[in-house]
Each structure stands twice: as structure tokens, then as C-alpha cells.
Structure prediction request, 753 residues.
Amino acid sequence: MADQQVDPQTERKAVQRKANRRTLRRLILISIGMFGFGFAMWPLYEIFCDVTGFGGRGVQEVAADDIQHYQDQREITMRFDATVNSGLNWQFEAVDSAKTVQLGKLSVASYTSINISDEPVIGHAVFNVAPPEASLYFVKTECFCFTEQLLLAGEKKDMPVTYYISPDLPDDIESITLSYTFFKNIPATLAYNNAAKKEISNQPNPNNITTNDTRARGE
Amino acid sequence: MTTITHEDHHDHKPQGFLNRWVFSTNHKDIGTLYLVFALLMFFIGGAMAMIIRAELFMPGMQLVQPEFFNQMTTVHALVMVFGAVMPAFVGFANWMIPLMIGAPDMALPRMNNWSFWILPFAFTMLVSTLFMDGGAPAGGWTLYPPLVLQTGDSFIFAMFAIHMLGISSIMGAINVIATILNMRAPGMTLLRMPLFVWTWLITAFLLIAVMPVLAGAVTMLITDRFFLTSFFNAAGGGDPVLFQHIFWFFGHPEVYIMILPAFGIISEIIPTFARKPLFGYTSMVYATVSIAFLSFIVWAHHMFTVGMPLGAEIYFMLATMMISIPTGVKVFNWIATMWRGSMTFETPMLFALGFVVLFTIGGFSGLMLAIVPADFQYHDTYFVVAHFHYVLVTGSVFALMAGTYYWLPKWTGHMYNERLGKWHFWLSVVFVNVLFFPQHYLGLAGMPRRIPDYSPQFADFNMLSSIGGFAFGLTQLMFVYIVWKCARGGETATAQVWEGAKGLEWTVPSPAPFHTFETPPKIDDSVVAHGNHM
Prediction:
């Protein structure tokens, strides 16, 4: 009885083993593909932001001479928000919390920063606009967020933003919030402070020698 | 080994503890390992829940530090989701799928061994983070940056543990799919398979599709923390909201990973004790597939308050509500199965009925949460906590209890103590409602989740909830006792065990021999529980 069963049995097992390996290979490939898809969500999200203006992405930056704008009688409320990341020891505020502006008219939003730490710090501002679709109609000609900002210890600086809102703004948007968050640019701050130290103490010291050595090795 | 003829090794178990358990490639032994491990994790996670409820017994800070409280909520969730519920269902899959489709074992037995034995190491690592400098992750199981990136030394250990869990789940899922697709006995066509097998097949595909996405998200967290990338770092041009999208693209299918096998178990139990075939078998299969598909396109309902465009909110609301249609099909099919059936109420049936009623309550509160304007009020409150504990505890866990009582005689060869089983059910069902029902009211009144203290107007409902929690926790010790006693001895079980039971697993003796279906069984209408007749 056993002998009669062995043949079809062994054959069946061999077929199954082959099928199992094929399934295993395919499913591993799918898993790897889905791992890649997780990362692909990053560029997909970038595209989503560009299209919808999400995350302030729709804001256009143009040079002051290039503006082609016409004015509109319609007025909206602009709100200004200022936040400092916990890693940065600055005071950063919007001068006005809200302002009425005319569509298409070039306006200035004023912010001020004070470095309340005891050393020079380079900061970097990141912005956002709410509601997200409003950013598609937001045009800046000048902003402190375009460049890194250096504040010496205790220094106070006015930080204006020149902008206008396109008159094409949909009618249902009656107010727009412009928000900035200041972060510390840690590598730039470190580099600046190291360079400053080197300039002050012009005598050779072990640090300088190390730097020279590195440079020599680099060449 | 596979060439040994059938007669030679009816009960030929490997000798010695190491060979039997650590090097096991037997689906039944690995199933047992998964189930025992899940039970252990259920109690570890449960102990953390007890600490949470003890701290919330009264307003004010009583027992623990706020940081530790946050670690408890985070690790409780990770342990329960990845350590208790998921491995328990994999344990059921290991034990039952080969028995239900007439296969001698899982398709890839060595990988099966590996996918189990990763788990104890992953969880040792995860739980050890509680004892590290800075404590365990405390930013919630959803691992949202930037909060999770502020975790102390334990960050990388927790992340690596999650990577290992993911690998284990993916291997388990591959095994389930390969077994179901390639190992069915001749005549066991796809539309004759038991519903538990169907739901697991779909669950396994969900696992393969989303666990790698979680691995990707975790990898990005790791590179953001250690390698100066800025995927989620706003200062570097990234966006923390992106993480939420990636996480919930994994997270929403994940909740169906934890409930679809439960649907399968319930769909096996109700026909047995109603002594009628399952009503609408084919519609059950289609409903499961629909739920799985919808689970991929509704993720953003977990994050309505991040500031989404209105159109997206409306889309995600409607897509989410659509899930109630296939889920409703299932609930009505279960009710129709019982309609005019000759019902008896043994413990598995009691848990199954408890599941149908209480899971549906969890479904309704989910529907309430799907409503965008209402969600802005409910978001991150105890209403959400009540909702997902109804679907996970009275849903998944009740189904696991029901399934355990249902198949325990097949696993052990003994009947469990029916009187104690019924006590276990009634105490559980009363106290689980005392525990979670008041949390709906707390949430509607605005009590936030994941906060160790609360204002005094929430005191009464919290005390009630804590009392329910302690009693529910204690009641589960009965479960351990009943299972232990049943494993040790008791009334001998017949092969069929339950009068109305149909399906291949009931054609083998109880306890199921170490090797079953070495020669494929003959499939005909008399043994198949559901599906098309030949």
C-alpha cells in the first residue's frame, strides 16, 4: 500500500516545493517594493505640496522690479505669527498681530528678533501659510527667510517682509495667516564662532596647528 | 524526513526541549509557541494598563511620574499590538490553516521557526528600554516626530525592535500565503476554504503591503536622528506631517490586520453553535476583500486635524464611512446565520456573541469619528480610546478567547471546564464595559488621552473605569487557569468536539496528532464547512 502511494506523493511534494519557492520569491520582491514605496511617499508628498500649496509651498519669490500686479478694491485680514524653536535662544515677534491689506498692493509685514543669548548665533526661518491654498496667491519680493540671519549677542534686528496677495485669491478666503519659525543653524553658528575666535587670537595655538595639519593632509 | 511513510510516525515528536521547541519546524508546535508568547505579552501589556488605570483612579498625581506614565501608554500599545494580538492570530494561523485546508504543514517550515524566534528577542529589546537612561519611548505608539526623536538612549533599541517585528510579520505572512496558495488538498478550491483561511489570506497580503512601509518610516526616523537627513525635520525643509501620512498608510491596514482574522474565527464559531451553514459565504469573502481594499484609501481620517484641504477631508470622511457597508454585510450575515438556528451557548459561542454586539458598538463609534466636524471635537480624547478598545479588546481579544475555547479541545484532547469558561465570559463582558464604556463620556466631555492627570469633573467616570479595569484584568487570570487545567487533563474530547462542527480540522483525532494529512484527505461535501457544493 505504501509503495503505491509514494510516487504520486513525492511528485506532489516536489511540485509544491517548487511552487512555494516561486511564491516566496515573488512575495519577497513585493515586500522590497513596498519598502521602496515608503520612501517614494516623500517625493509624492513634495508633488502634492507643490500642487496644493500645502506647507507654504505655493508662495512665489520674485525680484521687486519684476512684479506685474494690479490692485483690487477687495480687502482681507492678514495675521502674522512668530515662533522660535526651543533650540534657539532668541526673542522673535511680529510687530502687528493682524492687519487689513488690499489685494494686489505691495505691503510690508514687520518682525523683530533679539538675540538674548551671550554669543553670536545664525538663525534660519521657515514659513508656512494658512489656509494652504492661499499660498498659491502669495508673492514675496523680500523676506528675511531668503537668507541666513546673523545676530550678535544682544543684537536686535528689524526683519521686514515685502509681499502682496494676488487679486485672483478665491472669494471664500477672507483671512490669511503668515507664520514663521526660527531655527538655529547649528553648523553655520559653530563655523562663525570658530572663525571669530581664530581672528581674535592671532597667535598660533594647538587648534590652529591641527587645522593646518588637516589642510596639509587634504592637499 | 518527509520520505518517512505515514504509518511510521503518528506521534513522532523530536526528543528533548531544544529539538522540540527551539528548532521546531512543526506547525502545531510553532502555533503553540506563538500562542503562549502572545498570552505572556497580553499580561505584560495588561500590567502596564493596570498602572495606567491606577494612576487615573483619582485626579492628581498619585503613583508614577508623568514621564513614566507616558512610557506606559506607549509601550502598552506596542506590546499589545505587536506582541499580543498579532502573534496570537499568527499562532491560530499556524495551528489551524494546515488542518483546515488538508496540508501536512506550513509551506516554509524553517522560515516559520525563524519568524517566531525573532519575536522574543525583539520584545526583550523593546521592554528593556524601560530600564534605560531616559526611559522607554514615551511619545505614543504612533512614533510621531519630532517628539519621538527626543527619546533618550532607548530610541534606537525601540526602532530596531520594530524593524525585527516587521521582518517577523512579513515572514509569517509569506508563509501563510504560500501555504494557502500551494498546499491545499486536491478538491479544496478557493471558494470552499473556511472563512478563517480566507480572512488570513487577505490579512497576509495586507501585512506584506504595509509592514515594509512602516519599516521605511522607521528607517527615515533613524536617519533623521543619526544621519542628519531632514525627512521630517522642518528646519531642514522636511515636514513632520509627512510622517503621519506614511505611518497611517501602514496604520490603517494594520487595524484590519488585527480584526480580519477575528472575523474569520467568528465566522467559524457561529455556524457551529447555530447548527446552520454560514449565511452568505461568498458575500463574506467579497466583503473581506472590499474591507482590505478600502483600508488603503482612508488613512488620513486618523489625522483630520493636521490642516488638510477641505476636499481631502470630505473624501477621507466618505471613503471611511463606506467601510461600514462591507462590515455591515458581515454583521448581518452572522445574525442571519443564527436566525432560526438551533443555538446553544457554550463559551466559544458566548464570546462570539459578545464580539458581534460589542464590536458593532466599536464600529458605530468609529463611524462617529469619521465625521470630520465631529472629529475635531473627539480627536485625541478618551472617545478615541474607548472606540479602539471596543474594536480591539471586545473585538480582536474576544475573538481570540472565542477561538481558544473553540479549538482548545482539538489542541489538548481535553474539554475545558465549561462552568469556569462561562464565568470567565460573563465577568469579562461585564467588566470590559465598566472599563471602556465610561470612557466614551469622558471623551465627549473633552478629557484628553495620554495625560496622567485630569480636572476633577472627570473623577467619577475615571474611578468607575479603573474599577472595571482592575476587575477585567483579574478575570483574565481565570483564562490562564482554565487553559492550564485543560492542557493538564479533563474530560476526553471526541474528534468532532462540537455537535454542529464541520470542517477538515474536526476529522482528525483530538488531540491533533503531531503529523496530520501527510496524505491529502479526500474532500467532499460532508466534511467541508462552507462554500460551493461539488
Q: What stands out?
A: The longest helix of chain B spans residues 66-101. Residues 36 and 88 of chain B are 8 Å apart (CA to CA).
